């Protein structure tokens, strides 16, 4: 059976793709025609012997966060492009959803906000929009921002601010 949709699950810093695979398995019942792909971020986590990262958080500050996200774009885009191409969705981005957790959310929000990934939908768990202005989305991608109020790492206010900017 040919897949009718592609959902790419993007993990947080220090994690790996396997950590989000159960989410795809859970959603498979609701989206039986979808294929779920949960890749590892392109870089080894630089603060522990295991895990991966989209960009380093070592000594990160609010002032340099946007630059780190910008520096990670090429690797992020290459990975997403490889997945959509391998799965046969390169010309069907309207059937692709990006779902991220924490740092994975930051990268997907950047890709959508900068217009590089005009996908069907984005879901960001516990993320923030660290992208510098101007934002240049290609179209109005539906976004669902989910954030726990007691998040000790990324304040929930960051999702509200992202919603305002997008």
Automatic annotation (TrEMBL):
<dbReference type="InterPro" id="IPR050565">
    <property type="entry name" value="LYPA1-2/EST-like"/>
</dbReference>
<feature type="domain" description="Phospholipase/carboxylesterase/thioesterase">
    <location>
        <begin position="3"/>
        <end position="165"/>
    </location>
</feature>
<protein>
    <submittedName>
        <fullName>Phospholipase</fullName>
    </submittedName>
</protein>
<keyword id="KW-0378">Hydrolase</keyword>
<dbReference type="GO" id="GO:0016787">
    <property type="term" value="F:hydrolase activity"/>
</dbReference>
<dbReference type="InterPro" id="IPR003140">
    <property type="entry name" value="PLipase/COase/thioEstase"/>
</dbReference>
<dbReference type="InterPro" id="IPR029058">
    <property type="entry name" value="AB_hydrolase_fold"/>
</dbReference>
<comment type="similarity">
    <text>Belongs to the AB hydrolase superfamily. AB hydrolase 2 family.</text>
</comment>
<dbReference type="Pfam" id="PF02230">
    <property type="entry name" value="Abhydrolase_2"/>
</dbReference>
């Amino acid at each position: 059976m040919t897949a009718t949709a592609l959902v790419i699950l993007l993990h947080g810093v220090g994690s790996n793709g396997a950590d989000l695979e159960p989410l795809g398995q859970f959603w498979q019942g609701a989206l039986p025609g979808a294929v779920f792909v949960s890749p590892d971020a392109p870089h080894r986590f630089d603060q522990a012997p295991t895990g991966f990262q989209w960009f380093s958080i070592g000594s990160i500050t609010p002032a340099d966060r946007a630059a780190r996200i910008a520096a990670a774009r090429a690797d992020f885009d290459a990975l997403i492009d490889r997945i959509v191409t391998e799965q046969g969705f390169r010309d069907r981005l309207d059937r692709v959803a990006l779902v991220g957790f924490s740092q994975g959310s930051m990268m997907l929000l950047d890709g959508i906000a900068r217009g590089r990934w005009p996908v069907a939908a984005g879901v960001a768990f516990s993320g923030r929009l660290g992208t510098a202005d101007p934002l240049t989305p290609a179209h109005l991608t539906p976004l669902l921002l989910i954030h726990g109020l007691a998040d000790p790492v990324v304040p929930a206010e960051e999702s509200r601010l992202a919603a305002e900017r997008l």
